[in-house]
Design brief:
heterodimer; A: about 375 residues; alpha/beta; Rossmann fold; 2 domains; seven-stranded parallel β-sheet; six-stranded mixed β-sheet; 14 helices; about 20% strand; globular; B: about 375 residues; mainly alpha
Chain lengths: ~375, ~375
């Protein structure tokens, strides 16, 4: 029995060796339509349809396809404007442990630009980038030290605190006598940036909220699953609303759906993050989701789509990408707050005030604190 | 010993997993057609991604290494009639203990690497110790205790990596320990393979864990089939009462087998920790312990069979990525496909073996 298995294994191995060479040749035969550039994206946990970060990145792919006559390969929505640019996205397993494998898969398959959506790609992207010096990598939201212009990595960051300052101002202006809450995903410095900006914005426009205990803040957890844990977010939200919060903002990725559910159930107001979540819900197919949209006032927009599009644009226009760091803030449209046909009326009264604040941030008159720990000092200086 | 005449039934028996595999491919095709993708594209995606180049083939072998450890660990426990469902927790703890030895001990490389391997095994074995003792002394079923110990292990490493052992720098946002010392990192064997004409690119990890795997496979085979202790293990697994009657110290054997199984399981994470990542985190691939159960079953609990089934599982995993990259089959469906393929291989393999056994009996009269 044992020997037979050895024999069979040896045979299999031998066969696979023989089968290698001719097939390699077969692969080399080029298909009739070869795209000029191939851009690949690896989504983070949640994949396409997370109504947040990944969907925003996906929108960036669609814009790229539209502008440069490209197509998204194997996409169920059949985005196809031509064959000049091949775009492709991959989704990790629910736990997200195979991010590194997926990056490698794209790099190995000849993609010119590979983008990891989310800071969780930091470690794996740095490693894979070393293995493929001829492929350029984009890291959304993450930070890798010691990069320069000739590195094959670009860190695509955002000034989240600036955008959150505006949503904080929305919460402060719309809030009538209640408290204001913030729900974070994983307890990491990045999310504290949202936290700080939001608190500062709320305090800036509403003196009531400068008092002790009027601002509530809590995190879903300490490991990455905190970004995909709607149940915890929901119980935190319910708790905040019970404590007297009228508006709660989240920066918790996929966990945010828990906040929206709580807002709907308790007839309160919530603010979304990353993409225009109110719009996504308002245009959803199910009536239940459209009902949720009523309770999403606006969203802090992190224009991942802009980051993806601009990075792809750089590659297509110039033939290569510049390494290093790139941050997208209020000034270049990298962050903002969402106004759409559904919430336009609700925000009509405060739009002017928000625009003024926005200009003040762009001009540097308001310097937004980038951590909730710095809000106290900031408030002491400002008021 | 060398018999040139091969029993035809044995040949049939060997063919049964292959037939199971073919059936699984048919299942794949049916699902792919139902989803609305071209079956030819799916098959070419699978083969293109698993064996079209030496690099891809090497990747399959690389993925098979941790699966082999998991399968071997479970198989050895099965041989002694104990169900080690706890390989999952054992490798999380074993990996952590090994990583600690790699971080905090200062040794030259030629000692350090065997030491971290040893510590990984000790960690895994210690995590198996309490369920083993509870089983033989109090009769508490090991399935329950090991499953509970999996949860404890996960929570424990989560806490330890986040708090006391955290080495999270400013650059990394992932919770992780400090970097493992260079002397304890597993080097790659890629140059060696290149020397014998097999072009393995640098991003494929064929590292020292492959040597450890081969070594462990041989040791387990030697233990099971060439040593008295192994004979006793197999005898306890076949019949507890008979072994007891024959004077075998059943409890000793079961605890021993459980510990060896835990020690082998402790090595499951070694490739990822010492070769791929270079630090420890609770983010290392999870679920391999449970896959080890299926691998051991398909491999019929023999070290060589486990080699074969680990490679098969690695093939299926890679095939899933191939489908994701080259076809429009949705990700969720891919998990269904790989799951169904495993079931089909197990079931058809089992049916065929029984049928062959019946045929043989008939012939023997």
């Amino acid at each position: 029995m044992k020997r037979c298995i050895i024999f069979l294994l040896a045979l299999l191995l031998a066969l696979s060796f023989f089968s290698c060479k001719p097939k390699e040749k077969a692969v080399e035969v080029k298909e009739p339509e070869v795209p000029d550039y191939k851009v690949g994206i690896v989504f983070d946990i949640g994949g396409k349809g997370d109504k947040s970060f990944n969907d925003s990145a996906y929108a960036g792919l669609v814009t790229t396809a539209r502008e440069y006559k490209g197509y998204i390969k194997d996409d169920p929505d059949k985005v196809d404007f031509g064959k000049n640019i091949e775009l492709k996205y991959l989704e990790p397993k629910p736990g997200g442990q195979d991010r590194e494998i997926l990056l490698r898969v794209l790099a190995e398959d000849g993609y010119n630009l590979v983008i990891g959506v989310g800071f969780m790609f930091t470690d794996s992207l740095g490693k894979v980038a070393k293995e493929f010096p001829n492929v350029h990598f984009g890291l959304i939201d993450g930070w890798i030290p010691d990069l320069n212009e000739s590195s094959n990595i670009t860190c695509l960051g955002f000034a989240e605190h600036e955008g959150s300052f505006l949503t904080g101002a929305v919460a402060g202006l719309m809030n009538k006598g209640g408290k204001v809450g913030f729900i974070g995903g994983m307890d990491i410095p990045l999310i504290h940036k949202f936290h700080g900006g939001f608190y500062a914005g709320a305090m800036y426009v509403n003196p009531e909220l400068r008092k002790e205990g009027m601002l509530l803040g809590q995190y879903c957890g300490k490991d990455p699953s905190a970004f995909n844990d709607p149940k915890t977010a929901e119980s935190i939200a319910v708790n905040m609303y019970k404590q007297g919060a009228t508006i709660v903002y989240h920066a918790a990725g996929g966990s945010g759906t828990g906040l929206f559910k709580a807002a709907k159930d308790m007839n309160k107001i919530s603010i979304g993050v990353d993409s225009d979540q109110g719009f996504t819900y308002a245009t959803a197919e199910s009536a239940e989701e459209r009902e949720i949209a009523e309770h999403i006032l606006t969203s802090m927009l992190k224009r991942v789509d802009n980051a993806v599009f601009l990075t792809a644009k750089e590659l297509i226009d110039t033939g290569k990408n510049t390494g290093g760091y790139r941050a997208f803030g209020l000034a270049d449209g990298g962050v903002g707050y969402a106004v759409n046909e559904f919430n336009k009326k609700k925000l009509a009264d405060i739009t002017d005030q928000l625009e003024k604040i926005k200009q003040k941030i762009i001009s540097g008159e308001i310097v937004v604190p980038d951590d909730d720990a710095k809000v106290k000092d900031w408030a002491a200086k400002t008021f | 010993m060398l018999k040139l005449k091969i029993d035809k039934y044995r040949l049939y028996e060997l063919l049964s997993p292959i037939i199971g595999f073919l059936a699984a491919i048919i299942v794949l095709l049916i699902i792919v057609i139902v989803v609305g993708e071209s079956p030819a594209k799916a098959v070419s995606a699978v083969f293109k991604f698993t064996m079209s180049t030496t690099a891809r083939l090497a990747t399959v072998f690389s993925i098979a290494i941790p699966l082999f450890f998991a399968g071997l660990a479970v198989a050895l426990a099965f041989r002694a009639g104990v169900f080690n469902i706890g390989a999952e927790g054992q490798y999380f703890i074993g990996g952590l203990v090994g990583a600690m030895a790699g971080i905090y001990l200062r040794l030259p490389a030629f000692i350090h690497i065997p030491v971290v391997v040893l510590f990984s095994m000790i960690g895994g074995a210690l995590w198996a110790l309490i369920p083993a003792i509870l089983k033989v002394t109090k009769g508490i079923h090991e399935v329950i205790t090991t499953i509970m110990f999996n949860n404890i292990a996960l929570a424990l490493v989560n806490y330890l990596v986040n708090e006391p052992l955290s080495g999270r720098g400013t650059s990394s946002l992932e919770a992780q320990t400090h970097e493992i010392r260079k002397t304890a990192l597993f080097g790659k064997l890629n140059n060696l393979f290149r020397a014998i004409g097999w072009n393995v690119p640098d991003h494929v990890y064929l590292d020292y864990s492959l040597i450890v795997a081969i070594l462990m496979g041989i040791l387990v085979w030697f233990l099971l089939f060439r040593m008295r202790y192994g004979f006793e293990i197999r005898s306890v697994g076949t019949s507890l009462d008979v072994s007891h009657y024959a004077g075998i110290r059943v409890k000793h054997i079961q605890i021993g087998a459980f510990l060896i199984s835990g020690a082998l399981a402790g090595l499951v994470g070694s490739q990822e920790i010492f070769a791929i990542r270079g630090f420890y985190t609770f983010e290392i691939a999870s679920g391999l312990g449970f896959e080890g159960i299926a691998i051991a079953l398909i491999g019929r609990n023999s070290p060589l069979g486990v080699v074969f089934s680990a490679i098969l599982f690695a093939f299926l995993k890679q095939a899933g990525y191939g489908l994701q990259l080259y076809t429009s089959v949705p990700n969720a469906v891919i998990y269904v496909i790989t799951g169904l393929m495993i079931i089909f291989i197990v079931v058809i393999n089992e049916i065929m073996t029984r049928y062959i056994r019946a045929l043989r009996k008939k012939e023997a009269g």
